[in-house]
Design a protein that fits this description.
Length: 393
């Protein structure tokens, strides 16, 4: 019987060629651990562009001993497989509500409180406020608890300088709890959210685009908030210039709405989800601007904005999630397809369950997948995934 040959016996040029065809980052890491030959083969071929991973929560989040390693499942689109990777030990039972490039994850350790940011690569942890200051009249203000539904940032949060956060929130008062969602903006490092921008718009999504936060309402309108502050000013001092755009061509019926920047343009993605059941398809719209003419010609200070539906995806890969949508080009990922990649975020409007879940909470986890454009219907990943007691994907 012939002796088993070592992985190191494979010719170096063949190893390099194999590594060139391994797009998934986790697969490349595992290959590099095989031996020095594979390590050199992987290092000589730069890692290809990566697509976002889908974090899959457990059905239950059990407590672990202090010495144990907590692992979570991440689904990779490039290799069509889930990987189990180490995550910070203290994330048990936390509700995830968004992500930011660089490995950052938004979460609430106490479901409706204990908001924070963690970095899955470095395990760095940052604080986010649990309270908001709102005016109560006569020039007075009062501090109220809030919980964050979705959030994003203006810049990487590693250093607080110049970094501003924006969020869609529910204010935990009897007057606000069952009403429309509110929005707020604050400087990173502040212990309370600013009251300068708390309209009850029933916002569906938020994105930082062209130097300003854009909030999308359930009717397809936009509120644009542009933060202004001096770096040396106290963290709580923040001015916000606001512009409301009532959009032409609004489309009212949608299971959910998302904003995503693609090819320098702002897109609105509508989720077609009849009767709030499984996602059926999507519609994608581009924001258009036209100048308004007056008696003297065109008035540069006035413009009308609207949504125009795209006839096709045209090679776009749109990953949609509230506060964290990203776009890519299918041509940059051989073997990948254009489409709208989505996750189960049906709990976005489930404030009573999040805040007062007396019985085990039921976060849906099965409505994830990809829609590759008309006339196809959406293809679902993990359609039999049972609900989680602590977070959606």
């Amino acid at each position: 019987m012939a002796a088993r040959r070592s992985w190191a016996d494979i010719p170096a040029d063949l190893v390099a060629e194999i590594a060139r065809h391994v797009p998934c980052l986790e697969d490349r890491v595992r290959a590099a651990r095989a031996c020095r030959t594979w390590l050199r083969g992987v290092l000589t071929n730069p890692c290809p562009l990566q697509l976002p991973w889908l974090l899959l929560p457990y059905q239950n989040a059990a407590a672990l001993p202090p010495y144990a390693t907590r692992r979570a499942s991440f689904f990779c689109v490039l290799c069509n497989r889930a990987h189990r990777l180490a995550v910070p030990h203290y994330t048990e039972g936390a509700r995830f509500f968004g992500a930011y490039p660089g490995g950052w994850l938004f979460l609430a350790y106490g479901q409706s409180c204990g908001h924070g940011l963690i970095n899955l690569r470095t395990h760095e942890s940052l604080y986010l406020p649990d309270d908001i200051i709102r005016p109560v009249g006569d020039g007075l203000a009062r501090q109220y608890p809030m919980f964050i539904r979705a959030a994003t940032l203006s810049a990487p949060p590693a250093t607080f300088e110049g970094c501003v956060a924006a969020a869609i929130i529910t204010v935990l008062t009897p007057q606000c709890f069952f009403g429309p969602s509110h929005i707020t903006v604050w400087r990173m490092g502040s212990h309370v959210a600013s009251a300068s921008c708390t309209f009850g718009l029933d916002a569906e999504d938020v994105i930082h685009h062209n130097g300003a936060f854009h909030f999308l309402t359930r009717h397809g309108d936009l509120l644009i908030c542009r933060p202004e502050f001096q770096d040396e000013a106290p963290l709580g001092r923040l001015q916000v210039r606001e512009e409301f755009r009532e959009m032409l061509g609004r489309v009212l019926n949608a299971g959910a709405r998302y904003l995503v920047e693609c090819r320098g343009e702002l897109l609105m993605v509508l989720r077609v989800q009849p009767h709030q059941e499984a996602t059926w398809s999507f519609r994608v719209f581009r924001m258009m601007q036209e100048q308004v003419s007056d008696a003297d010609g065109i008035d540069a200070d006035h413009a009308r904005y609207g949504w125009t539906e795209l006839p096709a995806l045209d090679g776009r890969m749109l990953f949609v999630g509230r506060g964290c949508s990203r776009s890519f080009e299918a041509a940059h990922f051989p073997g990948s397809q254009e489409g709208v990649y989505f996750l189960d975020d049906g709990s976005f409007h489930a404030a009573p369950m999040i805040c007062f879940g007396d019985e085990p909470r039921q976060y849906g986890c099965c409505n994830n997948g990809v829609w590759s454009g008309p006339p196809d219907h959406a293809h679902h990943w993990f359609p039999l995934q049972r609900p989680s007691t602590y977070s959606s994907p």
